[in-house]
Amino acid sequence: MSNTAQLILDGKTYELPVIEGTEHERAIDISKLRSLTGGVTTIDPGYKNTGATKSAITFLDGEKGILRYRGYSIGYSIEELAERSTFLEVAYLLIYGELPNEEQFSSWKSEITMHTMVHEEIKNILDGFPSNAHPMGVLSSLVSALTAFYPKSLDPNRSIKQVDLSIARIIAKMPTIAAWAFKNEIGHPVNYPDNTLDYCENFIKMMFATPAETYSVDPVVSDALNKLLILHADHEQNCSTSTVRIVGSSQASLYSSISAGISALWGPLHGGANQAVIEMLEGIKSSGGDTKKYLDKAKDKNDPFRLMGFGHRVYKNFDPRATIIKKAADGVLAKLGVNDPVLDIARGLEEAALKDEYFVSRKLYPNVDFYSGIIYRAMGIPTEMFTVMFTLGRLPGWIAQWKEMRENNEPIGRPRQVYTGHNSRPYMELGER
Ligand code: SDX
Fold first, then answer.
1. 312 in active site
2. pLDDT in tens, 339-352
3. How far is residue 396's CA from residue 146's CA, in Å, rounded to a whole number?
4. 236: CB partners within 8 A, 6+ apart
5. Which of 312, 319, 340, 356 is catalytic?
6. Which residue among 15, 81, 335, 401 has its CA within the 20 to 30 Å range from the CA of 90?
7. How far apart are CA 319 and CA 298, in angstroms?
8. What is this structure's pTM?
């Protein structure tokens, strides 16, 4: 295959290099296009055909439904994944590039354990939010507020030691902040971390324990959370990760970049879809299980409704995460003794859609958000916290991608445009308008 591409423009032929990745993906390098052609650029709304970077972190093959973190496939059955790894181990792998050895893993875990508490004044900020504040807005605000408590984190060039400390702090404190956002919403007192527990157990206890009762974490719930966080940990250049990268490219701090990523993930077309899926399934249930009505709405171009949890920019066959989560849903609900009618509605909707020409022709399959909410709900997580759960999972991926962008000294992100506004025109006095 050729390692150059030819572009013919205005009778001139331009040679452009073609680069190939380790998984044989190829890209035409247009980084010199503007200077070669005297100002001509490309345009690609939504960057559907445009690579923003080279990355060694996560590989997706949309046709084969492959997802690998630093070369390790997460396409295992859900049981293997849980037995073989923990979320903190996957976080280390994504951020530092290799699975940790015993010594590295032990110091990684103790470093994180020692940073689970947040500054007491975070409570004052939290108290300023009304109880109806969406937890994603609280989370994005409090993560940005961490820059006030850790001013040394503001300079991403300060030192590797400082960056590693900032990384450990945000991984350790995100569960605390997330659980506190939830407690603020339900008017309960916050719980402090319990460092005798592991990462997932600690979060669950902070979420559900109350001063009035003794609380013990259900291992089924912490085990399910461990799997779900692993499955959400990174996904190459998705919308929120690209946001984290472009904010970080201006040399804004890690916490500012993560805060921006949380806001991008919040959208219903992205991470907010897991909340929208449950709301859609509840809507189908309350309308007597009329799946066809919702499928017809999704196909109607005049109706803005989309089948939430369906479709993906990259996966055009199946989302391996959705397959694993769908399989896990049965087991988790059975172990928890939960019988949720929306699980059957979800299955029925998937079955009907996958027989429908509209969805098949557009290669629209369930994505990671289609079944995850059903498990979260069975675990006792309220709907408005679903995208917060996605945030907890995606945090190490955002950090890894931000760190890679900084270490590669990537230039500030500043796309071009094609101007379609007025040409030059003279100012008109008020009386003449
Ligand atoms: C995530 O990028 C990632 O990796 C994201 C993510 C991650 O881990 O970071 O995987 C997480 O965000 C998963 C996606 C969650 N969002 C949803 O479930 C919302 C519903 N899905 C869609 O809005 C949509 O499928 C997207 C946003 C996911 C993808 O949109 P694209 O790639 O821009 O596709 P498109 O909008 O160009 O759609 C192509 C066609 C269009 O029809 P035509 O104009 O060709 O006739 O498919 C249709 C769309 O109208 N279509 C849908 C649909 N998704 C696409 N029609 C109905 N229901 C849908 N869900």
1. yes
2. 999 999 999 999 99
3. 17
4. 55, 57, 58, 59, 60, 314
5. 312
6. 335
7. 20
8. 0.95
